Amino acid sequence: MAASAKGRFVPVLAVAAALVAALLYRAPFSKSLGGEGCSLLPHDHFWIASDRVVTLGRVGPAAVEVKGGLINAIAVGDYRNFVLRRPLLDYGDAVIMPGLIDVHAHLDEPGRAEWEGFSTGTRAAAAGGITTLVDMPLNSFPSTVSEETLKLKLEAAQDKLYVDVGFWGGLVPENAFNPSALESLLNAGVLGLKSFMCPSGIDDFPMTNSTHIEEGLVTLAKYQRPLLIHAERIPDVEDDDGLDGELDPRSYATYLKSRPPAWEESAIKDLQRAMKDTGAGGRSEGAHIHIVHLSDAKTSLELMKDAKRSGASVTVETCPHYLAFSAEEVPDGDTRFKCAPPIRDGMNRENLWKALLDGHIDMLSSDHSPADPDLKLMEEGDFLKAWGGISSLQFVLPVTWSYGKKYGITLNQLAAWWSENPAKLAGQKNKGAILPGYHADIVVWKPEAQFELDDSHSVYHKHRNISAYLGKELSGKVLSTFVRGNLVFAEDKHAKAACGVTILAK
């Protein structure tokens, strides 16, 4: 038995106890891809091993037993010195870590599958080591704001999922003051709700104000589920530095000026009472506020630190594109880089990294927000009219690693930002770690392997040409992705059948 970080015991198979007299079957990986249907591997009971397994708060040699879709046991130590009864996939010195959980992705189906759909989106996720997605309630049509529209999502996802997918519902003015409508949506299984404090750009997903949010949190408190907030709000009195005169719409500086940090600051200030009410004794105690894609690492970040210190139940995420790029590097006219909030300057990027490393930012998400290429207006290069959103789902693991290496990020930090903490936000108690009894959601990857995202690289997004990461040289190649024990991606191949499941809250 070995103690976990929380002081409880988990059943870890000791190396000495694993010495059994049985014939070793160590299948060469390249010859093991013979499965049909859900998995490329023709076994449902097997071991995977390497010299770098991220488990139990450590990174080191271990073998992981997978049985019936779950992690059954972990053998810590020099696994090559003992004999196992089952097939073993030995990955050498590749990293074995929990599959990534992306709590912020737009898959746009039903209604806008030409932007991205469940099949293409989850294939890209699997190729990127993501084993669980939580789909946003907008950009599809209709938006997921009711029990009926959630059913449409579930129908559209049927037989198309290569990874597991959960769903956020929408908090909008029409349901914010209607507890029965919100309870119907929550009872139907959404993992929480999402709202915008500025225009979303989607007609059937209007913006909310702090009053809507406060009322919605009271209902969410009964279910102990989170409210995710796009925290940009147009200030009541805008700064004199706003857009005026003849400005070049192809200039990234023009777009940056159109959405200043004051928008994020204004939204978070407006949320202060709502955040306070989530604390002990508050009106919405039991609910949780999660700020999505934080971009401003100055006043907005300081306000979030203050809220946490005051006992509010809040978390914060940022995205790889805010950590990889800076405003100074965005070419004029290259609308692939347009997102909201915007990518800000280099000093802001440094401060975001510091906040992430110091624990003030809790997790990462992709905010994969694709679109039909025509909407990006790449030929015109008009930042003010082009559709905003970074297409990134398949690349977030190597991007985070590649740009984080200079800050000395560790594999354990990577697992916390992309697996453990997102699992907690989404209420997934059996995901986010390599531990006995957990789902066998695992990514195997080579941190040292370098590659260029050029035309020869396999990309599974619906529209590869709209990604801002194309042309970048990255480190960290995904070798294999297991979802509930199924080998769904390996050697640039996907399993023949899409056997991911929809995740509904109970």
Automatic annotation (TrEMBL):
Pathway: Nitrogen metabolism; (S)-allantoin degradation; allantoate from (S)-allantoin: step 1/1. Catalyzes the conversion of allantoin (5-ureidohydantoin) to allantoate by hydrolytic cleavage of the five-member hydantoin ring. Catalyzes the first step of the ureide allantoin degradation followed by the sequential activity of AAH, UGLYAH and UAH which allows a complete purine breakdown without the intermediate generation of urea. One of its GO terms (molecular function) is allantoinase activity. It catalyses: (S)-allantoin + H2O = allantoate + H(+). It comes from the Eukaryota. Pfam families: ALN_composite, Amidohydro_1. Residues 95-488 form the Amidohydrolase-related domain. The keyword Hydrolase applies. Belongs to the metallo-dependent hydrolases superfamily. Allantoinase family. The keyword Metal-binding applies. Its EC number is 3.5.2.5. This is allantoinase. It comes from Urochloa decumbens.
